[in-house]
Design brief:
- This protein has a single domain, classed as tt1808, chain A (Alpha-Beta Complex).
- It starts with a strand and ends with a helix.
- It is built from 3 helices and 12 strands; from the N terminus they run ββαβββββαβββββα.
- With about 160 residues, the protein is α+β, with helices and mostly antiparallel strands.
């Protein structure tokens, strides 16, 4: 299990609780699937789990998963595994940071409901494109090899 960590969200320091074992298992599975999905992809790279990412002038966040573009180093995809004990930070505060930073893709992974909310950046902010659950397939156009059955993220 990881330690507690800090993020700066819209200029405010936020102490995050250490994630529980289930959270870490989901993160590990997600990282493994995305790493395999990056095979042959030369435009983006997967950063280490919860690496600090500058997401705006007053925000340094630590997504559970982050893909950055090779050319610019900018965040392309952020994924947050929502923790029930501090979900407000991910679902409200950081979601707004990602929207303000014009992040092209955001995945909100909710272990409570075994689903994944998929958001795409648009000229009007983040737009919910779908909610995946059960046997639905998590995929991303940038990663043609990525095909994850949502239930596999939450197994066990």
């Amino acid at each position: 299990m990881s330690d507690a960590y800090e993020e700066i969200v819209d200029g405010q320091m936020v102490l995050r609780f250490p994630p529980n074992q289930r959270h870490e298992t989901i993160c590990s599975r997600l990282h493994a699937h995305v790493a395999r999905g990056l095979t042959g992809v030369a435009v983006a790279r997967l950063v280490e789990l919860r690496s600090p990412i500058q997401a705006g002038p007053n925000s340094t966040v630590r997504p559970d998963l982050a893909l950055v573009t090779i050319a610019t180093g900018k965040l392309f995809l952020a994924a947050e595994v929502i923790s029930s004990d501090d979900h407000h930070t991910d679902t409200v505060m950081k979601k707004q940071v990602y929207e303000d930073a014009n992040v092209p893709r955001l995945w909100m992974i909710d272990p409570r409901y075994h689903n994944v909310e998929i958001y795409h950046g648009s000229p009007y902010g983040l737009t919910l494109k779908g909610i995946l659950a059960g046997r639905d397939i998590l995929s991303e156009q940038l990663l043609p090899e990525l095909k994850v059955v949502v239930d596999e993220l939450f197994a066990g």
